[in-house]
Amino acid sequence: MQKVILKTNIHCANCLKKISPLLNESPNIKDWSVDLESPDKILTITGTITETQLASLLAKVNFSVESLNRKTKNNFWQDITVWKRASRNTLNCLVGCSIGDFGAIIYLQYTQPNWPLWQVMALAIVAGLLSSILLETVLLQYYEKISLGAAFKMALGMSMLSMLGMELAMNITDFMVTGGQANFSSPAYWLAILLAMLAGFFVPLPYNYYKLKKHNKSCH
Fold it and tell me: Residue 13 burial (CB < 10 Å; 0-12/13-18/19+)?
């Protein structure tokens, strides 16, 4: 038997629920624990499992481990598991934002054609934020098996800065390509939608990665 002590991005009770079945059923693990009070969220394993095997096991549920004595400055941005998780979080947010944002632009253009463009864009951003929070609430309730109220609070607690960055990137890109006019018959409109969504995904992605890697925030 040997003891393996590693840093992790396991940081809450919901995380423990996800990893418990894998660790409990592994024949190479006799005992394990996670110190959630530690800044490094220390995972201690007793058994015959190696660090590489453990990393592969936890990667199945989108968690990562790291040696305590490893220099992390140069490989901070090289954690594939965290990039995947940040990408999933960002994609969920993008879908929610896009529904409200583009829906509001199309609706207001046809129902309020005389409204100034800045007003349409402002309302579209608000609609995008609200639809994103609503979608996150539904997803959190489904995947985390928590109450609707708890899911809503968790969704509200997710980074508003990230969502605002996403909304601004989408609307600025849309405006630069189409001038803020939704014209379904124009190829430029559909190109603008695609470019806006790409911008909305990639602009906040590094920030979302940083939060997950550095502070273990936004647990989905």
Answer: exposed
Contacts of 132 (CB under 8 A, 6+ apart): 93, 96, 97, 100, 163
Q: Residue 36 has which token pair?
A: 């959630």
The three-state DSSP-derived secondary structure of 127-140 is: HHHHHHHHHHHHHH
Q: What is the pLDDT of residues 24-80, one digit of tens each?
A: 999 989 999 999 888 788 999 999 988 888 888 888 888 888 877 654 455 778 888
The CA-atom distances, in angstroms, between 202 and each of 80, 89, 97, 212 are 16, 12, 14, 16
Share of the chain above pLDDT 90, in %: 15
Length of the chain: 220
Q: Which whole-number Å values give the CA distances from 215 to 21, 36, 185, 212, in the listed order?
A: 25, 13, 46, 6
Per-residue pLDDT, 199: 93
What gap in Å lies between CA 64 and CA 213, rounded to an integer? 10
Q: What is the DSSP letter of 76?
A: G
Neighbour tally for 145: CB within 10 Å:
10
Residue with tokens 């005389």: 114
- Cα–Cα distances in angstroms (integers) from residue 57 to residues 53, 197, 214, in the given order: 6, 33, 22
CATH number of 2-67: 3.30.70.100
Q: What is the mean pLDDT of residues 172-199?
A: 82
The segment(s) of the chain belonging to CATH 3.30.70.100 are 2-67
| Per-residue pLDDT tens digits for 188-203 | 788 888 999 999 999 9
